[in-house]
Amino acid sequence: MAVVSDTIGDFLTRIRNAYRARHRVVTVPASRLKIAIAAILKEWGYIADYEYLEDRKQGILRLTLRYVGGNPAVRELVRISKPGRRIYSGAHELPRVKNGLGIAIISTSRGVMTDKEARHLGIGGEVICTVF
Questions:
Q1: Burial class (CB in 10 A: 0-12, 13-18, 19+), 111
Q2: E strand or H helix at 89
Q3: pTM for this one?
Q4: Helix (H, G, I), strand (E, B) or coil at 81
Q5: What is the pLDDT of residues 51-101, one digit of tens each?
């Protein structure tokens, strides 16, 4: 098994690939950040559900993907901040995804949240990814 340096990038790629292959379920190694991202994706209707499974190591995160009329609920999933180039934005510079139709997931001092929540709270942070 290869060592992955960008675990969040790997997580997002697995979701993209599962949607393209029309899978119903995708499993990934779990982390608190991935669980927080999955919770946001579920809250916004991009995935149907997620569950954490204990495996005596780091755990497994199982995502149930959502399709609308046979089409994937996620059209675009883009990693913004990468290990080699971290992207931070202040509250007033947070990206608007597709003019407000999509969301940006932001890691802030108050936890992981969408760009809309961070803008409302007036806080910035690291822009993890955008979803449309």
A1: exposed
A2: strand 88-89
A3: 0.96
A4: coil
A5: 999 999 999 999 999 999 999 999 999 999 999 999 999 999 999 999 999
